[in-house]
Amino acid sequence: MTDSTPVQTGTGTWRELLTGRNAPIALVLAGGVLIEASNVYLTTSLLPTIVGEIGGMELYAWTMTAFLLASIVTSMLVSRVLMRWGATGAYLIALGTFALGSLICAASPTMPVLLTGRAVQGLGGGLLAGLGYVMLQRALPERLWARGAALVSAMWGVGNILGPLVGGLFAQFGAWRLNFICLAGAAVLLSFVAMKALPRTERGRSEEVVPWVSLGLVGSGVIAIAIASVLPVGLGTVLAFAAGVVLALLFIAYEKRSTKGILPRIAFDPRSPLAAVYLTVAVFAFAIGTEAFVPLFGQEIGLMGPLVAGLLGAALSFGWSIVQVFSANVSSAAAQRSLIVVGPVVVGLGLAAYGALQLNGPSVTVLVLWFVTLFCAGSGIGLAFPHLTVAALGSTTDEDEGAKAAAAINTVLIIAQAFSATLAGMIVNFALPDMVHAARTLMFTFAVIAIAGTIFSRRAGRGIEA
Fold first, then answer.
1. TM segments (predicted)?
2. What is the DSSP secondary-structure string of 356-400?
3. Both 112 and 218 in a single domain?
């Protein structure tokens, strides 16, 4: 039996969404996304402390790679899990898996065990992020969909703030294991709310095809580059990295001819700017890929405490989140296209400035400038990102295809983040043990990639009609 919500007219209010029978539903949908969103920054804030206790510096970037790869896989399975197990069952699977992964992380005696826990967390997190959006239509009346979507989306920004604050506090007291136990506890508590609050939804067999070949090529490519990051510098490193690049190219070639891929078909139409939109998003993902190492640089080079270093690690996302609120208000098509073009340049200049400021024994002024330059780098993403969605929607006259094109932006971002985090780990490992050299090399390399992204961003803006 299905609990179907009738179509209702009128505009819902925040009070209606956050009180009465809708409140626990909103808590489950938003809470699941918040757990996923904050977990990224919780972990990056804790990593220097974790590595100091259990070792595994050479696998530092793998903590992000394992989580993102697992998230990619389960994000493709959201509809199938929801259809097979219903709303409550899907959330119990997602939250239970996330809690299990968190407990594995908490008990980790070595970095490989921690990586296993991170992968299990990612499996649950990928489901939680997708369910938060998919369930809006099924669990809330139509008049509350817009406010529900706004609430769920806002959790990414809230996670950007809570993650480094909470993670930094736990790291400050060396209580990183307790942090993961609390994450598991939060997931269990939300499970009880889900069992009470969520409506019954239709169950059956899903006809949706899972793009296993594409997922396999992406995963293998990321793993190949990850292996290159831990091999001694030499022929093996070159071969592993080359294998990763080849697998990435095979992924693109397969997507181009497949009808069962991850990306919409229009992305490969030479007349469409959609490919340029996705490549611009990928360029921004490379900037985001530096965030995992910024708390490490803050502690090792700037001699910051874990809390302050965690906040430094989120400075780029702060810039992104704050600036995009204002950028989204730009309505002129010409101005929107200009912001898309200038975004990668601002990102590149911010990363380059942060890299140039890396030196042993930095003064307080230099430390403040670290925050400023990273915030500026993030603001470049905030300038362009809202309008990339508009460009994707305008890349075709077909409304349904436009919606698919815009929805795939998040998928592209996650895939590119997995590659960028792995490449960042390889660059840092090669430059160690000189931490200053590692920071400069990473930031200068990704700054060049960002500025080169203007090649794509100029074409990406063509999806916005005058």
1. 25-47, 59-78, 90-109, 115-136, 148-170, 176-197, 209-228, 234-254, 275-297, 303-326, 338-357, 369-393, 405-432, 438-456
2. HT--SS--HHHHHHHHHHHHHHHHHHHHHHHHHHHHHHTT-S-HH
3. no
